[in-house]
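Annotated sample (chain length 574).
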Amino acid sequence: MECRLLRGGMEKEMEDNARNFIDAFIQEDIAPGGQFEGMTVHTRFPPEPNGYLHIGHCKALTIDFGTAEHFGGLCNLRMDDTNPAKEDTEFVDAIKEDIHWLGFDWGDRFYYGSDYFEKTYELAIELIKKGLAYVCELTPDQFREYRGDTTRPAVSPWRDRPIEENLDLFERMKNGEFPEGKYTLRAKIDLASGNFNMRDPVLYRIRYIEHHRQGTKWCIYPMYDFAHPIQDALEGITHSLCSLEYEAHRPLYDWVVSNVSIPYHKPRQIEFARLGINYTVMSKRKLRKLVEEGYVSGWDDPRMPTLCGLRRRGYTSASIRSFCEKIGVSKVDSTVDWALLESCLRDDLNANARRVMAVLRPVRLTVTNYPEGQTELLPIENNPLKPEDGVRQVSFSRHLWVEMEDFMEVPAPKYKRLYPGNEVRLKGAYLVKCTGCVKDASGRVTEILCEYDPDSRGGDPADGRKVKGATIHWVNAADAADAEVRIYDYLFADPEPDGPDKDFLDNLNPESLTVLTGCKVEACLAQLPMPEHGKNAESFQFMRQGYFCLDNRDAAPGHLVFNRAVALKDSFRK
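Output written by the structure step:
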């Protein structure tokens, strides 16, 4: 299947919002004469609670919930916990929190796949009695061997086992009389089908493992392809929206709901392409490996593509929903540039984030002609794009902190910041002219010396002279707060870390995290309420630096820790 990297022109399909093909199908179904005429559109989101939701799940999530919203319908949340391995209530709680954070709600329609174990078992017995299922003794290796290929049909020596014998063996499987792998229950469909999913697929297998909700009540578990259509039908789902890999499973989905006795309308399955993003991996197994082997600090590490990681880093729910809207829905697999996600966040924060000043690599600046011991308050607007956010009062005095990179004793060509003899603007304060610097014994600059123009308050000289120097940010050394700042980059150095013949662990980016200590930030930031663990913290634009928020795990009163969500520069070509 074609794989395209969505950049630049954004692809016509993306611009037109390819979600229309799903909407068109549903509109057809609910129109007069359609199979769901007069019915409420009803979808479901069925995550498996064996890990945290990541950005890839957001596409399915927004399609399921968003489609229901679009048609004034309903969307269920159902935990697909039919496979007890690695499923846990921790993941259930995290999934619910993430969905609410994105702005969706399921009302009282929250279910577990395991709620239907008893009914699913009864329907399996029904299939056996109809002669449509049988107990098979093939091992997994034998199953592959007997499955056949495109030139020869599959074979099962147990296909014609008598119904009564099948019923007896299946009940004994349920009662725990056989070891794992001894028997499976298979559907009797078509051993010569060109669709291998229809070659008598497995419906039940034996697993001796404790279920996170059912405990040890069950030792046989239904396969997803059997349980899922039954659950959809029992819940009254009209449209089962799922990713493209289930397209080949659709005939089996239809076979199941057509051959079990449920007072239902037959749900319609519609498939769409999954979301791929460069510079990351989205396999839960691989994300789990990153966590369990200590390559990241946890599922909520800000470098992870998980929603809790993105939230901790400073991503907003609005930016993620905007991202999902922009990529649209397609029937063609594609890889989206991570820079598009960053661009959506940058647009949101540029419009809404308050501006503050923070110096990440500080050096002292002394205004030598400013009165010693004097302090004044300067009004600086919080967001030039939102006048209603007003202004804040920022203190100014003789001793300030500025960025080390804003000074060069011997300036490079076209350098417009501080150097001896050059005049610059201090943001919202005064014009200052650099007169020199102080160095330590090693030659390192420890202090920049300047003189200010008292008649330039606010940055404009009274005599109207033109100042070609840059405007630089600063903080008052008298009341600045200390902070730790974490700068994040891609977790992987390779845009396709999980490509053919690659070990994704070999492509980890050694510079994905840079920790800066001794940073200086405006005094007002020391008064921020500490964010609750796992919750969103307010985002700020650090002038000239990027967008930052307090870390929702490590920040504490007296210990400010800020994460950079995204840089100011947009690398995505719109």
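Annotation: The chain has a mean pLDDT of 92.
Annotation: DSSP finds 13 helices and 28 strands in the chain.
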